Predict the 3D structure of the following.
Amino acid sequence: MDGPSKSKQRKTRNAQLEEINLKNVFSLAPGCSTSKLKESWSKRKDFSEDATGLQLSQEPFCHCMVPGFLSEEKDIEQLKDELMDLEFVPKNNDLYKFIQSSEDLKTSKSPMISAFRNALCTRVRMWLTEVTGIPLNETVDAFCAKYAHTDTLLCHDDELEGRRIAYIYYIVNDWAEADGGALDLFSVDENIQPKEVVKSILPAKNNFVFFEVSPGSYHQVAEVLSEDKTRLSISGWFHGPPIERPTPYLEPTRALLPYGDIEDEEFFDWINPVYLSPGAQGSIQEKFENDSEIELQDFLLKEKYDLLLEALKSSNMKWQSAGPANKRCFKEADDASLPDVVSTCVRLFRSDAMFLLLSNLTGLKLHELAAASSSDSEGQSEDGEGAEEADKAGSSKSSEKKKDLKDNETKAQANETAACKSRCRTCVRHWGHCSYTLVHDTNTEGAEFALDLVLYVGCADWDMEYGGFTSYIAKGEDEELLTVTPEENSLALVYRDQETLKFVKYLNTGVNKMQHRGFYDIYAVYFE
């Protein structure tokens, strides 16, 4: 006699999936480990159980690992197969890069996915409520995520209205530390800002990890380094009554400085004379006023640029980590110990001569003489012939340009009534593997507009796939307004307002292929 048909087997199997088999640890029966775990959770003590492998840890914040979440291997494999058949969409912004199920798993009709989510919403939710004492409601988010080579989720705290317990369930095979993708947990400082990674939880098949969402629950998914493995997981949040949050910490901003002095010879020894020509300045200014951005190639003279690169690469440079990790991660030079060449270059970008040059290139009033200089440039290039003559003069009579600029500076210094309020801030940065900045409102000076300047150094072999480009976006929007890419000896200028935010995209492991395993830049921001 023939056995049951495949369709009948499938129907029987689907009916059985209404009650998926979970590990016994989720039992609420008297005498089970739940009571001990509950006591440890309430007293903020560590707890472990050899029989189940369950581990509760309090550092750096309360989190728990439950191995063997599903009790049957066939359930795990079917769940994996169904998840892989889902529709996925790319998720890519300043904070993350991976692919995720296009919708919450509650919309899935697949039997094992439905059974898994049903278990989360019933047995697991009730168990978590008992253990944590948090009255979790029926709102449970569940998404499937796939992290492939170079994918990551950077430092964040998961805080959003109603989120009380975060969880992740791993469906991976033979995952090793060298594969990356660990769940990194951060300690916090006295301002409840992320300090450093103090614990890393490696993905393990059929492991269920959860933690209480709090102002200090900073964590990240480290970059996946494996080129042939996929970090597959289901993650989300259990919701409950919102908790009171502390006032967001506002980190102190660096002082904005007025322009300083620099010797004429030093200034003209550094700058490509092409950009000192009034005719070229007029053309650049016209383009900048139309586009609000421009990139000036070969901005520094080659001899000075080569010296600058060598100095930045040298052991004489003292670098320190810039954080906190929920805002930025890169190496920053110690201003007090810069080599002479680097120090001179920084002074160059802080000088009155640079403020005036930037005024001429952009049309902004960063210098007392900005309006007059802009007018003169426009007059000389009005019909094109003046610009051509000015370019010729610029390439053959640099001494005249030096004299003109010096005369202008003398007039400006003599004009006591034309006090300039323009200010700037500078920073020398090293971008390597795991460097990034995240979107946040950095413009706390009250100025409506700002001019960003970046001089790129040592990036001749940079590739877009490595990350490290700067993206400008409108506040509250994901769509990019502008992308600025590193280019050797290129000066990028971008004019932005308070509604424009920016970030430097995470530099993945590909950057290690570069000659310098990254690149450098000198960053400055100017306010009128």
